[in-house]
Amino acid sequence: MRSSWFRPARRATAATLVSALALAALTACGTSSSADNDNNAGGGSSDPTAPLDPKAKVTLTIDCMPPAAKKAELKEWKEDVATFNKKYPNVTIDGKSTPGQCEEPARFTAALKAKSQPDVFYTYFTDLQQVLDNDGAADISAYVTDKTVPALADIDSNVLDVLKKDGKLYGLPTSNYRMGLLINRKLFTQAGLDPNKPPADWAEVRTAAKAIAGLGKGISGYGEYSAQNTGGWHYTATMYGLGGDVVSADGTKAAFNTDLGKEIVQNLHDMRWTDNSMGQTQLLKWGDLQKQMAADKLGMFLAAPDDITYMVQQLGADYANFGMGPIPGGKATLFGGNDYMIKKGSSPDKIKAAIAWLNLKTLTPGKGQFDYARSKADGLPVGLPQPAFFTGASKTEDDQLKAASATMPVENFRAFMDNPVPGKAEPAKAQEIYKVLDNVMSGVLTNKNADAAKLLSTAETQVNQVLANQ
Amino acid sequence: MSAPSAPTLPASTPAKSRSRRTVRRPAPDGRRPGRAGRALRRNLTAHAFLIGAVLCFAFFSWYPMVREFLLAFQKTESGQTTWVGWSNLNYVFHDPAFWQAWRNTLLFTGLALLLGFAVPFFVALLLNEMRHTRGYLRLLVYLPVMLPPVASVLIFKNLYNPEYGLFNRILETLHLPTQQWLQSTDTAMLSVVIASTWMNMGGATLIYLAALQGIPGELYEAAELDGAGLLRKIWHVTVPQTRLILSLMLLMQIIATMQVFTEPFLLTGGSGPEGSTTTVVYLIYQYAFSFNNYGGAAALGLVLLVLLAVFSAGYVRLSRAADE
């Protein structure tokens, strides 16, 4: 028998309560986690050249604050916030830290789609079109001047160009890289090679790889990616190094099915199957080769300088164990990097505050990320050839400051630094092309009888379809 | 023994007077509420309780489905969303990876059914015959399901490693040729299926086991009296008695295996050697998160949805047959 208290009226009340709770829960789920915007949206002077209104209260959410696990970096972040707040006490910096990489593409794509990216958000150079397609970034051209960013004239114009579309500037760089040949100095020495003279062309790479693999104990001489689009990325980098390209100048046709393209595939085939200097484990992606090299199981691979930071900080390797040379061939090298953009719809004051913060944190020699003396005192690495977007007087000043506080043997990167290779940007529809080229790389690295001509011919057809399929 | 029958009212009694629930007060304006209104009032409490679940489904299942359908016919460029008709589907059908992904997915489904359907059934048959250790063995069979999928996949990734993996060590010990497993176009998909079968067979085995235990023992006894051996008993008693469950599981496995993503993504990086493990769902992932082509991803999702809807309809039909 039912209890008498549970009468229809009360049942209805209970049901209403349940429904209200459910609604409340759903509302909570649907609420943006971002402290979206802000107490002064639309406030302040709309004149981009006017200084930030000191009376306007501005709160900036900013990507890529170091996580708690990175104590030294987090300490420096907080110090920079304190420094910034001395000049701009009206601005509250609300840093957002993310575990792992600052930008994880799947998460980033979803955030853009949901328009839930922070006010100042971290992107890769290659993300601009994606961000614009999602109406995600503000045009900051008018706000970025030699007054707001004093080193502006000394920032490499090639780098700034990557962040422009139709003459409008949408981001400010924080770091950039040029790919080179990363080597394990210990294995070079053990194999009787000179670690101060990294191989300069692919014939030398092959010879060195064979010698290193000859050490046995599961050591590979040279490593290469072939999964999750990273294989195609490295094929492109190799092609650039030899002076070739993967798409035609007008971007409408594949351009890798050439003698040069076949040469790359054949060389990889010979290293993998004839010399057996690339190990049996293939289908590798970003992170796999770094683990091998950090464990002294790999002699060389194509990389950006910050791979060394990853190996030291995340995998416990030693800076002194690594060196870099320019990309084999040295005709051109794939370049990339990362930057910050400002969310579209931000108020003028918010944009001004964001640029002031970025100027302090990432664009002023001797300050923020370029405060090498502080980094050295905090036990952080100093001396990597990256970032490298300054030119002129700023570069001279930065080089001097870096050399004065270097915590690693910078001569290990001498070959890379002394032989600068012109940078070349990634092709349009890069990821779709890399996906197709992954098959070329995985084909040659997993199949002894792979037919280079057939692999390239198939990939050419597919890339042409991709380029035609706009 | 049959249950006592409820007292019946004389046939001449008007239907409305048979139950208190049918007594209706007129609405304030003098009109009587309509049939829908009456049904709503009668089930008000149930409807109120349902609101939470309905809203959850609406927000997190139905709305995304509708959104996906719309996205499949839209394109967003420079912040402007426009209707593009069949353009996204056209893009998908002309993608060189499209047919390869379907071939791979169907191959996975075929192999997964061959292994993932037959193996759990025979394991269930064996377990059903056990008398003393059935409980422990059931736990052992189900254990992989309790492991996080990523952990299971990483275990297999190491087992398959051509240099230090256990499988090649065993082959070497037996003086058999070692394999490239995940690194060969010939064996990559099969290797993925083996890992997937091991990871997922526990649940299917338990369902088969439950079905087997529902078969009356008299049927086996009668078959034995008729001189049937083990195989004939399985063929003539077990299979017919579990046919409906087998059919339902077959459809459910088709639906599940056609959406495979985790295993190839983690074991071979998604594409595998020369794209040999690229599946449809991995291609959808690539469209959305590598190419930022949500329209293409939605269009391909729609194609997959249509195909799976056919199998789902079959599943619903079989479920109804099972209920009856």
Automatic annotation (TrEMBL), chain A:
It holds the Pfam family SBP_bac_1. InterPro entries: Bact_solute-bd_prot1 (IPR050490), SBP (IPR006059). The keyword Signal applies. Residues 32-52 are annotated as: Disordered. PROSITE patterns: PROKAR_LIPOPROTEIN (PS51257). Residues 1-35 form the signal peptide. The keyword Signal applies. SUPFAM superfamilies: Periplasmic binding protein-like II (SSF53850). This is Carbohydrate ABC transporter substrate-binding protein, CUT1 family. It comes from Actinacidiphila glaucinigra.
Automatic annotation (TrEMBL), chain B:
Residues 102-315 form the ABC transmembrane type-1 domain. The keyword Signal does not apply. Keywords: Cell membrane, Membrane, Transmembrane, Transmembrane helix, Transport. This is Carbohydrate ABC transporter membrane protein 1, CUT1 family. Belongs to the binding-protein-dependent transport system permease family. It is a multi-pass membrane protein. It comes from the Bacteria. One of its GO terms (cellular component) is plasma membrane. GO terms for biological process: transmembrane transport. InterPro entries: ABC_transporter_permease, MetI-like, MetI-like_sf. Residues 1-16 have a biased composition (Low complexity). The chain crosses the membrane at residues 44-63, 106-127, 139-160, 188-211, 242-261, 294-316. Residues 1-36 are annotated as: Disordered. PROSITE patterns: ABC_TM1. It is found in: Cell membrane. Pfam families: BPD_transp_1 (PF00528). The keyword tRNA-binding does not apply. It comes from Actinacidiphila glaucinigra.
